[in-house]
Specification:
83% helix; 101 residues; mainly alpha; single chain
């Protein structure tokens, strides 16, 4: 029970750090990263209590790899400045091609 309480306190600490210090994440990214860290740590605690050590190590590696793959494919971590820069590039490309016609 103490492990789960510690994981909850770590979630609150991570949320505070992500919102107090300036980081180049979107608002959604600032919520998603600590939440996924909490879910992975809670599942790791549960897996460690349920299975043997080598099973739990293998399952945690698999879980972390799957989480990394899913986070890489989700467009949650584009900051607003990068989004504006991409929109400006797109607009300049479309405006430049219409002038040549």
């Amino acid at each position: 029970m103490g492990d789960y309480l510690f994981a909850g306190l770590a979630l609150l600490l991570l949320l505070a750090l992500f919102f107090l210090f300036p980081m180049k994440f979107s608002k959604t990214g600032k919520w998603v990263i600590p939440t996924i860290a909490f879910v992975v740590s809670t599942l790791g605690i549960y897996i460690f209590e349920l299975l043997t050590l080598w099973h739990s190590i293998l399952l945690m590696i698999l879980l972390l790899l799957l989480t990394a793959i899913l986070l890489q494919r989700l467009p949650l971590f584009i900051s607003s400045t990068e989004k504006q820069h991409k929109m400006e590039q797109k607009n300049s490309i479309t405006n430049g091609s219409s002038k040549g016609i």
